[in-house]
Amino acid sequence: MNFVHTVLVFSLTSLAVVAVTQQAESQAPSERPTGTKIVLLGTGTPVPDPDRSGPATAIVVGDAAYLVDFGPGVVRRAESAALNRKIPAVEPGNLKVAFVTHLHSDHTSGYSDLILGGWTSGRTVPLEVYGPTGLQSMTEHILQAYRVDIETRTNPDGPMRDAGRFPDGWKVNAHEIKPGVIYKDEKVTVTAFSTKHAMESYGYRFDTPDRTIVISGDTNPVEATVNACNGCDVLIHEAQPLELVAKLPKSPIVRGEVPYDDGATRGIGEEGQAEVARDLSHH
Ligand SMILES: [Zn+2]
Ligand SMILES: [Zn+2]
User: How many domains in the chain?
Assistant: First the structure.
């Protein structure tokens, strides 16, 4: 296998595979100096595993962080990375731009905390969020659900005027996307590509000044991932080794009492994973 380094992290629907593809025989990408970091904030699943937070990854470029997915625990894991790994870009108040691969709850149930926890931690500008159809509705409903909290914290005559210092920090600009370049600033260009999961879903390619990183999200093997990773430095891919699923904490799905079929993992098995690996090694 033509990978320099592979890290496997299991998940019910998926297994995150961080694969650093080898571009030059003489010098692996990991040996080149980089200003870009990947912080795996959460690699968990819908299963409430106490040792794994929900799916969330931060791409850090200098002092800016770009979040992909916001599973449960995302804000606390971000604070932990800021404090314990000395990465201030992921302090919750600094999280300003996020991308969501799809709207499954295990990837989005940290959304309210990202919005409100980021605001009360000092975010002064609206959160910019990019993702599939349904994102705007989800955002509006979350803000509606927390209307009392937001009104209390923004009431200039109320008892919690502190957050009034950041009057725009609770706001969200939700962008529903299509494949293509969906975001660009001076540090990063983000390109979305369609993936194959139980619902509208996207993978993302991040081109930074010194690295190209691809995140698949939950997906079947698709050519779009291979194409997006053409020449990339790091691929973070989801997969599902069945032998690991068998070891997961018992849930109705794992016990076979509830049929599990999200279209993402059907019939892939080890052969499918090997196929993805083979494809990638050819690009
Ligand atoms: Zn998932
Ligand atoms: Zn999913």
Answer: 1
Q: Which long-range contacts (CB under 8 A, 24 or more apart) does 143-146 make?
A: 143/115, 143/170, 143/172, 145/112, 146/112, 146/115, 146/116
| Three-class SS state of 46 | coil
Structure-token pair, residue 254: 């794992």
The two tokens of residue 147 are: 């209307």
How many A from CA of 34 to the centre of ligand 1? Answer: 29
Query: From first to last of its 283 residues, what are the pLDDT tens digits of the chain?
Result: 222 222 333 333 344 445 444 343 445 555 556 789 999 999 988 888 899 999 999 999 999 999 999 999 999 999 999 999 999 999 999 999 999 999 999 999 999 999 999 999 999 999 999 999 999 999 999 999 999 999 988 888 877 766 667 889 999 999 999 999 999 999 999 999 999 999 999 999 999 999 999 999 999 999 999 999 999 999 999 877 777 667 666 655 555 655 544 444 444 445 544 444 443 433 2
Residues with CB under 5 A from ligand 2 (ion): 13, 104, 218
> Which numbered ligand comes closest to the C-alpha of 264?
2
Listed residues: CB within 5 A of ion ligand 1? 13, 106, 218
CATH number for position 151? 3.60.15.10
The rounded Å distance from CA 198 to ligand 2 centre is 7
* Gap from CA of 26 to ligand 1 centroid (Å): 36
CA angle, 113 then 116 then 117, to 5°: 60
Measured in angstroms, how far is the CA atom of residue 71 from the centroid of ligand 1?
9
